[in-house]
Amino acid sequence: MKKSMAFLCTILNLHAVEFQPVHSSMQTYLESHTFSHSKQKIKGKLYGIGADIHFDDTEIRFAYEYGRTDTKQPPLTRDLKVQKFFFLYNHTLNKQFDINLNYLSVLDDNIAITNGGDTFGAGISYRPSKQWYTNFTQFYTNYNDFNVYQSNLTLNYKIKLGAYKIKLTSENFYINIDDKKQNSFTKNAQKEYFSSALKLHTHYNDWHFGAAAFFGRRAFAVMNDGFKLQHHAMEFDRTYAAGVGKNIGNAVIRVQFIYQRATELPLQNKDVEVRNIRLLLNYKF
């Protein structure tokens, strides 16, 4: 935790001294989640704060989040507390190519064996035109008991219809789990997963609308462009999301609803439903 906070402060100090931001922002978010049919979890809350800093041809994004979840005792012996850190470095090489480096860390988890796990990612983006954009990123996650290799391929298409700006996104995830030693988290997991998603984002005047649907099963996945890490032993087979947002001056307020269905792998407990409501505030400076 101390190392990550020191690294974060170094980034901010370097930026303040050496660079002039072009269009940057800060973000904070609050998320509540409830579980149905779970044998381990009841409900919880998640708090996050981060920033997106731009200078010249470089973008730096980072976020810190803290979550707490009420658990069922037994089988668990305490409530869950989790801290995570996310970092992205993106550099534009020219009009067509970008490169990105990612780092994610489970700073602290007082229950899971994935506590202390680190994820590293590297990728390249290609823009053949103003409408099309594609990215390939390879992630590697190192936990004490197992490793996860994940390949992401994303394709974006933008179009403008009158006053509407529309963005369509297709995402594909290939996940490979490599056990270093036997453990309860991966015992009932598949060795390989393939999952895909379709996303829609519409911008009209000061309003934003979004929707997403995920297909196929996944476990221990890196999501949300490297800003979400599913490090608990849950195999998801359904995910649906919808959201709305509005610009108010330099701020953007968004509300998102997410529904997921999963299997708790250690207990082989199926049809666990997770409902998330997320409130986000973004301020541009």
Write a structural description.
The protein is mainly beta. It is 6% helix and 67% strand. The chain is built from one helix and 16 strands. Strands 1-2-3-4-5-6-7-8-9-10-11-14-15-16 form a 14-stranded antiparallel barrel. Strand 7 (132-142) and strand 8 (146-161) form a beta hairpin. The radius of gyration is 19 Å and the shape is globular. The chain starts with a helix and ends with a strand. 22% of the residues are buried. Residues 2-21 have low confidence and may be disordered.
Quickly count the helices: 1
**Per DSSP, what share of the residues sits in E-state strands of 2 or more residues?**
over 45%
Record the strand order, biggest sheet.
1-2-3-4-5-6-7-8-9-10-11-14-15-16
What structural class should be given to the helix and strand makeup? mainly beta
Low-confidence stretches: 2-21
Largest sheet: 14 strands, antiparallel, barrel
Rg over alpha carbons: 19 Å
Distance between the termini: 28 Å
Order of helices and strands: HEEEEEEEEEEEEEEEE
Amount of helix: under 10%
List keywords for this structure.
single chain, 285 residues, mainly beta, 14-stranded antiparallel β-barrel, two-stranded antiparallel sheet, 16 strands, 6% helix, globular, disordered N terminus
